[in-house]
Amino acid sequence: MLELLYEGKAKKVYQTDKEDELILSYKDDATAFNGKKKAQFTGKGRFNNLITAHVFRYLTTEAIPHHFIETLNDTDQRVYKTSIIPIEVVVRNRSSYSLNNRLGIKEDAVFEPALVEWFYKNDALNDPLINDQHVFLLTDVSKEELNQIYELTLKINNALKRFFHQINLDLIDFKIEFGRNSAGEIILSDEISPDTCRLEDSYTKQHLDKDVFRQGTGNLLDVYQIILSRLEELS
Amino acid sequence: MLELLYEGKAKKVYQTDKEDELILSYKDDATAFNGKKKAQFTGKGRFNNLITAHVFRYLTTEAIPHHFIETLNDTDQRVYKTSIIPIEVVVRNRSSYSLNNRLGIKEDAVFEPALVEWFYKNDALNDPLINDQHVFLLTDVSKEELNQIYELTLKINNALKRFFHQINLDLIDFKIEFGRNSAGEIILSDEISPDTCRLEDSYTKQHLDKDVFRQGTGNLLDVYQIILSRLEELS
Ligand SMILES: Nc1ncnc2c1ncn2[C@@H]1O[C@H](COP(=O)(O)OP(=O)(O)O)[C@@H](O)[C@H]1O
Ligand SMILES: Nc1ncnc2c1ncn2[C@@H]1O[C@H](COP(=O)(O)OP(=O)(O)O)[C@@H](O)[C@H]1O
Ligand SMILES: [Mg+2]
Ligand SMILES: [Mg+2]
């Protein structure tokens, strides 16, 4: 029996017998608005596990340092253990209703360069937006490291745009997390899936991401299936 | 009759017959929590008008560029007209309950260097916190100008700490606004008063600012009178 280290909203985290490796086990739960909206979708865990694996394998070819090792089965993947930096890094290539609500920036606004935002990863505080100075107060990230995170984030954005472009999806925005591995290096961690990206079909303009659940505008499983199918056709 | 250009929560703004000069007329209204809490205090306008005048006259001696020209009477002051940059610049030398609520930073935390935050001056959006990139999207402020605003802000903080120290007050935090004058220069505008500063008596640790109204912990007029009296004794 593996030791359960943490159960989050979307995944369970297990310690393996190697000190610096974990298993991320993707759950079928969907949550939105910091857990205020909840539902179960049988098969969602599998989609996010497999889609995330496709993404990270691509990021290897783009020389992005990351935690992913391999998928073990439909819902589980092996990753390098990191100590997670408690910042949710949000990258926006285009505005969306959430930015419109917060700052009044119109939904069709395009950001070039991409707009990068830090949020403090803290459910009790509702993941508040923070600035660079808050990062230094709230985490052990140095000025040089924050700059490194910023540069890496822009590289990841470019890589992800290319990745999703292959399956005719436009990347509107996404959320990533970084952690420090056992060598102290900052590497991309967590997941990259339709739970954490806003994706739009380049031709039909259909939204293919968790917004169908957040906004109640479509069937989550159908949409995640479309993405996985396109990725499997590709490879 | 002067033309009323704008009526805000705390002041009325009149155009004078000189194109680049305004009259700020301080009202007796107190508001908190973006106008959700309201009251009238006869004499408050006078206190803020006169206290602000003392502050800006001191800032002249510290070579801070600002809009203040002179007081005209108990409630009115003449200032250079600026086009206000829609950013509320907040400077924190120490934490407070609001930062504690937002980020969980303990109330007695001391910030050295001071923590500087930008908020988008927009009542309809509830003056949201923004980062540098949001500033560039939402205003016409350039990167160089934002840096200039930041440096000027630190200078103003140091000057204000010295100013209030003369009357045995510690400056916990404050909010300022900048505008562009007719020559295009960025200068300190608006007011600096117990409405916009958190001030603590260095010895008794009593709060001498609008928090007594916000929190319902004291009499606003008594507290503002104490500050004005100390300033008048000084000069
Ligand atoms: N490589 C890693 N090492 C350690 N923790 C990780 C790694 N990758 C992701 N995590 C963390 O594991 C948890 C995954 O579970 P999730 O359901 O996403 O949690 P949450 O509800 O906190 O978002 C997250 O807290 C995430 O920060
Ligand atoms: N020198 C100036 N030139 C033009 N506008 C100014 C100047 N100084 C302050 N203001 C603006 O005048 C208004 C003052 O009224 P106030 O009651 O403080 O308004 P608010 O409710 O917007 O805070 C503010 O909107 C402020 O930005
Ligand atoms: Mg998560
Ligand atoms: Mg004001």
UniProtKB/TrEMBL annotation, chains A, B:
<dbReference type="GO" id="GO:0009236">
    <property type="term" value="P:cobalamin biosynthetic process"/>
</dbReference>
<keyword id="KW-0436">Ligase</keyword>
<protein>
    <recommendedName>
        <fullName>Phosphoribosylaminoimidazole-succinocarboxamide synthase</fullName>
        <ecNumber>6.3.2.6</ecNumber>
    </recommendedName>
</protein>
<dbReference type="InterPro" id="IPR050089">
    <property type="entry name" value="SAICAR_synthetase"/>
</dbReference>
<comment type="similarity">
    <text>Belongs to the SAICAR synthetase family.</text>
</comment>
<dbReference type="GO" id="GO:0006189">
    <property type="term" value="P:'de novo' IMP biosynthetic process"/>
</dbReference>
<keyword id="KW-0067">ATP-binding</keyword>
<dbReference type="InterPro" id="IPR033934">
    <property type="entry name" value="SAICAR_synt_PurC"/>
</dbReference>
<dbReference type="InterPro" id="IPR028923">
    <property type="entry name" value="SAICAR_synt/ADE2_N"/>
</dbReference>
<dbReference type="GO" id="GO:0005524">
    <property type="term" value="F:ATP binding"/>
</dbReference>
<keyword id="KW-0658">Purine biosynthesis</keyword>
<keyword id="KW-0547">Nucleotide-binding</keyword>
<feature type="domain" description="SAICAR synthetase/ADE2 N-terminal">
    <location>
        <begin position="4"/>
        <end position="229"/>
    </location>
</feature>
<dbReference type="GO" id="GO:0004639">
    <property type="term" value="F:phosphoribosylaminoimidazolesuccinocarboxamide synthase activity"/>
</dbReference>
<dbReference type="InterPro" id="IPR018236">
    <property type="entry name" value="SAICAR_synthetase_CS"/>
</dbReference>
<comment type="pathway">
    <text>Purine metabolism; IMP biosynthesis via de novo pathway; 5-amino-1-(5-phospho-D-ribosyl)imidazole-4-carboxamide from 5-amino-1-(5-phospho-D-ribosyl)imidazole-4-carboxylate: step 1/2.</text>
</comment>
<dbReference type="Pfam" id="PF01259">
    <property type="entry name" value="SAICAR_synt"/>
</dbReference>
<dbReference type="InterPro" id="IPR001636">
    <property type="entry name" value="SAICAR_synth"/>
</dbReference>
